[in-house]
Amino acid sequence: LAAATEEDVKDIIMPKIVRQLRRSPESVMPTVLGALKAMELDLSESLAELAPVMIPLAKHANADRREISRSIIDALISKCSNVDLIAEHLFKPCADEFTSGKRPKEWTARVGSYGVLESCSCSGSDVARDAMGMDAMAVLATELIAEKQIDAKAAALASMSVWLNHARECPETVLALVKECSKNASERCSTLQCVAQAVRVNAAFASGLAGAVETLIPIIIGGGAKTAQRAEGASALLIVCRAAAEDASVADLVKNSDIWSTLGTYYDDATVTRFEEKDAQILAGAAQCVISSHATMAAKVDCTDNVIRTIALLSLHPNARVRAAARDAIR
Question: What is the DSSP string of 11-66?
């Protein structure tokens, strides 16, 4: 397969793969995955033939079949240089399900579609991928408001997280999502965590969330008062601090808010040891922003040493990703 020519792929290999996937997918999918990984050719032109077969398999009710189908799609995308064809044959059919009024009724099918949208984020870095990203975030933001099945929502959040990390700017749909999810105490923690992680790795992203600051300030204050809400409060703290650092009008609003009086509760040893991996990363990002952009306010509430000590503690965390986030905060 490594020595296969374009003619071999077009005339022999792909027709046989498609035929066998239609006849007996479960028995041939491991072989198909191995074949795609072994090929060294650009398979962009094979998308039109293979994508219509793989998308339904990625939406199958059986989780194992969905998983290996995603692996095949990932392998296929890794061999494709033409992002426009990826958008046409993989991304658009899945996105259109949610925008054309044909939203899958089965939650397992929605999980599959969210997964394919996520896979498309791994395509080449260019204008076409950026255009896909804006459409993906719009679709996923709407779905995260509408989706009620817990596993499907987790899949949508995972997909959104990946696309947010690639985003050059924050679209209005994500701002609307943050505002809407903040109203629902049972769902806002995971969504705010997703957005805060994007803000942590992409500071410019926060400027588009300025419109959510007034909504997020009470969540920060509530998190300072109640241990159970502290993780969502930390996510809101990072978003607000970054937005204030990027926008002078937001900085004035934040400066005169009551969030600073609660800052110490986020940067005590008990909070640091209690937080899970992603929340600890977010806490490190918020600490960096507090020290670099809001040091005066931290000093006013006598919290500077606490924030610095928190970064030091996180740099010794048992999780490597948390330690990396703490090192980023130090830089």
Answer: IIIHHHHHHHHHH-HHHHHHHHHHHHHH--S--GGGHHHHHHHHHHHHT-SSHHHH
Least Cα distance to 113 among 85, 90, 84, 79 occurs for 90
pTM beyond 0.85: yes
Q: Which tens digit of pLDDT belongs to each residue from 248-293?
A: 889 999 999 999 999 999 999 888 889 999 999 999 999 999 999 9
Tokens 């995260």, located at residue: 144
Cα–Cα distance for residue pair 160/137, rounded to 1 Å:
6
Element (H, E) at 151: helix 150-166
Rounded Cα distance between 50 and 72, Å, is: 10
Distance CA 91, CA 121 (A): 9
Q: 125 pLDDT band (50/70/90 cuts)?
A: low
**CA nearest neighbour of 14 among 59, 37, 38, 47:** 47
Q: What CA–CA distances, in Å, run from 15 to 49, 72, 309?
A: 8, 16, 61
CA 37 vs. chain centroid, Å, equals 26
Pull the structure tokens for residue 240. 């607000």
Query: How confident is the model over 26-44, as pLDDT tens digits?
Result: 999 999 999 999 998 999 9
- Residue for token digits 């339904």? 56
- Cβ distance 166 to 140 under 8 Å? no
Helices (H) and strands (E) in the chain, counts: 21, 0
